[in-house]
Amino acid sequence: MSSYADRLAALREQLKTDRLDGFVVPLTDEHMSEYVGSYAQRLAWLTGFQGSAGSAVVLPEEAAIFVDGRYTLQVRSQVDGKHWSYQSVPETSVTDWLKDHAAKGARIGYDPWLHTGDWVKKAKESLASRGAELVAVGENPIDKIWRERPEPSKARLVVQPDEYAGKGAAEKRTDIAEWLEKHQADAAVLSALDSIAWAFNVRGQDVTHTPVALAYAVVNSDGTADLFVAGEKVGPDVRQHLGNGVRLHERDEFESALSQFSGKTVAVDPERAVSAIFDGLEKAGAKIIPLRDPTVLPKALKNAVEIAGQKSAQARDGAVIARFLKWIDEEAPGGDVDELKASDHLEALRRENPELRDLSFDSISGAGPNGAIVHYKSSEKTNRKLETGTLYLIDSGGQYVDGTTDITRTVPIGEPTDEMRDRFTRVLKGHIAVATAVFPKGTRGTQIDSFARRPLWDAGLDYAHGTGHGVGSFLAVHEGPQRIAPVTSSQSGGDEPLAAGMIVSNEPGYYKTGEYGIRIENLVLVVDKQIEGAEKEMLGFETLTFAPIDRRLVVKDMLSPQELDWLNDYHSQVVEKIGPNLSGADREWLEEACAPI
């Protein structure tokens, strides 16, 4: 099966053998992860799509792939339109499409370890209206035909010390036990990998760029816990760290362990736990309370130690970005720099830091028209030179032992056009509007989102992604529950009230298909704001990311005096924060790049 067409044909033959008339293929794993290990990359193997969010449906005579606005261009370049129809989310969905396309009486298969219970319920309802049936499979049909499917990672767990976590694992389990008592539950199932990493103060290497380990956990009302993880992954240091309060089991024993909850009350997160977990508990006779994972909000509310670590990580990372931008300035005009060479150089600079453990995601290194592909990933096939008269967009980040970074900068190669400068300045104005926003407690990210879009809307422009996502502490670069996003965003979290201690990105952008992309991204911390005479408790943002914003793309006359003051003050802080990490020509370049306008 050397081609994707061959793989699609093989899947259809396997579905015939399995007496199925279709199959749903999500891009996730048994933990509902955004980024998944190589063993779970079923959608990419079947279709060629390399994005981080999407799904597909295969029927006997047609097939469809579903992506949101971030991947509109990417999916068309990676997935063959002769075999797949492109579907846009949220305008349509897998369940809506099946309702219109599944044959009457069809048996549509799904893997219960890869879907939430809510999705299964909706899909069953949609198919029932069509006279069709949703059928759980015992073994994923893609796994049957994927002969060279990788094995799950065997990397060992590592301890995340309290000096970086800021709170001991035993204390976190005690907090969860108190939460269980409040909800009159005997246990809580944790299936999200970052939740388990946070709760037990461990990290792993099982998912590229996200320091988590493949595991399941159950935390009990007495403060003890059961951790299901491959024994070969747990060394003596981790065993000692976990202590007597944590019982260790093999990961593949988790499914059968669900049968032990007969008569027990178990809290399970309907958004993060797969359907198979609910099925197993229901079959055992457990009483299920559908509640949000009790680690989600505490994980998002960074403690003082985590905030200090994040600031340290940002200062180191900002210095790396400054050195990289200087290198681009010097090397790109010569015509020898391409997207891959640039991202490789940036990674090499980051890896000079002993605190770095990994990148936080595959760098988005987009030159010219490739910069207009929101979640673009350069390859040998798509690689472009950084050509004079174009823009170059670089979105990147690092996983440091004390913090996770994510930053985007856009720079001109040669002289930018007036249109480029206009669009960049509008994006900057939106970025400043978010950075300076002050709002009452209880405000949602959906309410902040339009702050960033207003300058673009004034010119009849917009962008097809959220304005901000939560960020973990040496954990997932995309972390909930908070987001800054439109109400219609296909990504959940926009309705979570923003609260002091949350970290979120501030990343408005503009993308002109076939020509260029612009994005300015910093991470910001939600903080309390003291306002004289205020009648409500107020919040605002403290910027955490410090690296030059390219002044050559700024139209000064488009900025208000307050916006210009913000930019000049920001650049003054850039020199103050990251300058000590630079010397010689690097420091001189930084001071020039941050000179007041």
TrEMBL record:
Domain of life where this protein originates: Bacteria
Q: Which organism is it from?
A: Sphingomonas anseongensis
The protein's matches in InterPro entries, at most eight in alphabetical order, are given as:
Creatin/AminoP/Spt16_N, Creatinase/aminopeptidase-like, Creatinase_N, Pept_M24, Pept_M24B, Peptidase_M24_C, X-Pro_aminopeptidase_P
Q: What is the protein's name according to its record?
A: Aminopeptidase P family protein
Is the keyword Protease assigned to this protein? Answer: yes
Q: Which residues form the Creatinase N-terminal domain?
A: 7-139
What are the UniProt keywords, alphabetically? Answer: Aminopeptidase, Hydrolase, Metal-binding, Protease
Q: Name one GO molecular function term.
A: aminopeptidase activity
Residues forming the Peptidase M24 C-terminal domain are 537-597
Pfam family name, one: Peptidase_M24
Q: Which Gene3D superfamilies match?
A: Creatinase/methionine aminopeptidase superfamily, Creatinase/prolidase N-terminal domain
* Domain spans labelled Peptidase M24: 311-527
Q: Which family does it belong to?
A: Belongs to the peptidase M24B family.
